[in-house]
Design a protein that fits this description.
about 210 residues; single chain; alpha+beta; about 20% helix; elongated; five-stranded mixed β-barrel
């Protein structure tokens, strides 16, 4: 069943989903986009093992063009949930190569053709990909979005890593969407009522 889904993705470009179980530095053969030749190079790869088959997502296939991230971000993504499309199968070695970039393009297209999702003010879901003390990388319908503590909670959080974890699904509100510019802005904190609204009534001066 696992191999059937892998071959279906390879032949039909269907999107699969899995959890990153680790990050390895691996020598992989990739096609040069400018020359079309196969080139073998050493790079970090996200490792997904749905059941037994080892699926590698090279760093060059992790990000959309123009949205590339440093390697230390990828090394901080173990436990994140990712979508991917199989681009090469090695049945003999029991592994496959995949592209998150192709899956993101498919997710973006679906999002762009769904007004019920992309309208400002709509509540949707995003997934936590990587977390730092003051910044969080989330994925939302094929868009990688950096959220600061200011967009996560109304109250201050000294360290986001104490409140959130990789792979976590969060509700968020669409703030702005521009398909032509490939831009999506969301807010997690605005899914909750603003505790400062009406504060002047609840706590008048000299109370």
């Amino acid at each position: 069943k696992e191999w059937n889904s892998i071959y279906a993705s390879y032949r039909g470009r269907s999107v699969l989903t899995g959890e990153i179980v680790g990050i390895d530095k691996v020598a992989v053969s990739m096609r040069n986009r400018s020359t079309g030749e196969m080139v073998r190079q050493l790079m970090y790869c996200a490792v997904v093992i749905p059941y037994r088959v080892r699926i590698l997502i090279p760093s060059s296939e992790m990000w959309m063009k123009g949205g590339e991230r440093p390697d230390f971000v990828l090394r901080n993504m173990s436990g994140a949930i990712v979508d991917f499309v199989i681009i090469h199968v090695d049945r003999k070695s029991g592994l496959a190569l995949a592209s998150r970039r192709l899956a993101m393009a498919a997710r973006r297209y679906y999002f762009s053709t769904s007004p019920s999702l992309n309208r400002p003010g709509t509540r949707i879901q995003c997934h936590v990909m990587a977390i730092g003390p003051r910044r969080c990388l989330v994925e939302c319908y094929g868009y990688d979005i950096d959220l600061t503590q200011r967009e996560m909670r109304y109250a201050a959080i000294p360290d986001l890593r104490t409140e959130y974890q990789r792979g976590q699904e969060l509700d968020c509100i669409v703030k702005e969407y521009d398909r032509r510019r490939g831009m999506l802005m969301v807010s997690v904190k605005e899914t909750e009522p603003n505790p400062f609204d009406g504060a002047e009534m609840r706590h008048p001066e000299d109370s």
